[in-house]
Amino acid sequence: MVRGEWGRDPLLPRAFSILRTVDGGCELLVKAIGRGTRLFELAQPGAPLSVLGPLGKPFAAPEPGRTDLLVAGGVGLAPLLWHAEVAAKTSCATPMHLFYGARTHEDLVLLDDIARTGVMQHLATEDGSRGLHGRVTIALEQHLATKSDRAGTTILTCGPNAMMRAVVDIARKYEVPCLVSVEGEMACGIGACLGCALPLTDGSRPFAYACVDGPVFDAARVVIP
User: Fold this and answer.
1) Domain count of the fold of the chain
2) 140 belongs to a structural domain
3) 8 falls within a domain
4) 133-168, pLDDT tens digit by residue?
5) 85 and 27 in a common domain
6) HSE-up (13 A, CA, CB side) for residue 32
7) Deepest in the core among 75, 151, 158, 159, taking most CB within 10 A?
8) In this structure, are residues 184 and 196 in contact, taking their beta carbons and an 8 Å threshold?
9) Does a structural domain hold residue 168?
10) Are residues 164 and 97 in the same domain?
11) What are the C-alpha distances in Å from 87 to residues 14, 60, 69, 151, 182?
12) In this structure, is residue 81 part of a structural domain?
């Protein structure tokens, strides 16, 4: 949860996934969409920020023998790139695939960083300016359709809710486990405001909360809004 010293407007901090940790701090990937993120974009080097974190539960660490298919949309790339960078520094030899989609080639960022991890890249743009012409979920389904043995395969996804719902449907179709990192709006980050509630489907309780129970969930347990 991050907030700048910008007075009362906007009042609430913004929630971000960590892109990577560096020298005792961390990097964030920010796209200016509303007033809060625009203020981050305009912040000068050295500007003071209020930070609360790390919070919640991340993706499970890479494991030998498990093939991770990473599906990212927009700034949802952040936790998946971190996951790939962690894997590159460990003895996990199982190759990973990163399916990364955006509207145009200009929205595909950090491609050099992705390449350094050694993952197999599958790019897609909705306007066809780079990679597959269409949504990234098309590339994911094409890949899964060619695999006769999907044992040990797990999908990890983060991005717009509509994209993640489509990814979950594909995972269900091909009977592949799927983990989702939800991008719920939240005010506190510690489970007090209850603003980031997600309905549960496993009957354990009515709701889970992105800030303390997530943001990573087994897709079979939650309803993505």
Assistant:
1) 2
2) yes
3) yes
4) 999 999 999 999 998 888 889 999 999 999 999 999
5) no
6) 7
7) 158
8) yes
9) yes
10) yes
11) 28, 11, 13, 19, 22
12) yes
